[in-house]
């Protein structure tokens, strides 16, 4: 029917999605994706491990962060699930006992895959900017790259890119060097 308005998806649609899929709500569209492939999952796990001790736990680093793996974020009308998100402790002093957060994180990391890269770059990145997420990292396990972005107004400014086995000091976690090659290790 020409001119018919498309029905917008709701959070009920997210909840009704099959459990084996990651469900997100972007601009009123329900987007479902299968769980990540092993290379993708391992890169996220390894990065979370590199950040956890020095930044969430304060062992060998400054602490001051609360980091979560695949949290559900309710950002305005959107429901997003980044691979890793982090809040500065002054904004989220303790982990709340909730299923999702309406408080935008200070950091998000998306682990890119062929099926998610376009969504992550063209639709989710602008939402993170509109919601005030200060830093975004895009990690590509196939290309073995890390791209670092910092919020400048409501859009992102490219800060740096790193490849292969670089030892990285990337904002906002530049207090401790991170061995990028550990993300690609099999």
Describe the structure in your own words.
This protein is 24% helix and 32% strand. By secondary structure, it is of the alpha+beta class. The chain has a single domain, classed as tt1808, chain A, CATH 3.90.1570.10. The strands form four sheets. A six-stranded mixed beta sheet has the order 3-6-7-8-9-10, with helices on both faces. A two-stranded antiparallel sheet has the order 1-2. Strands 4-5 form a two-stranded antiparallel ribbon. Helix 3 links the parallel strand 7 and strand 8. It is globular, with a radius of gyration of 17 Å.
Pattern of helices and strands? HEEHEEEEEHEEEEEH
The CATH architecture classification is Alpha-Beta Complex
How confident overall, as mean pLDDT? 95
> How many β-strands, per DSSP?
12
Gross geometry = globular
Beta content comes to 25-35%
Under the CATH scheme, which class? Alpha Beta
Radius of gyration: 17 Å
Low-confidence stretches are none
CATH homologous superfamily name?
tt1808, chain A
CATH fold label: tt1808, chain A
**Which percent bin holds the helix content?**
10-25%
* Order of adjacent strands in the largest pleated sheet: 3-6-7-8-9-10
Count of the domains = 1
How would you classify the helix and strand content by structural class?
alpha+beta
Major β-sheet, in short? 6 strands, mixed
Count of helical stretches: 4
Distance between the termini: 52 Å
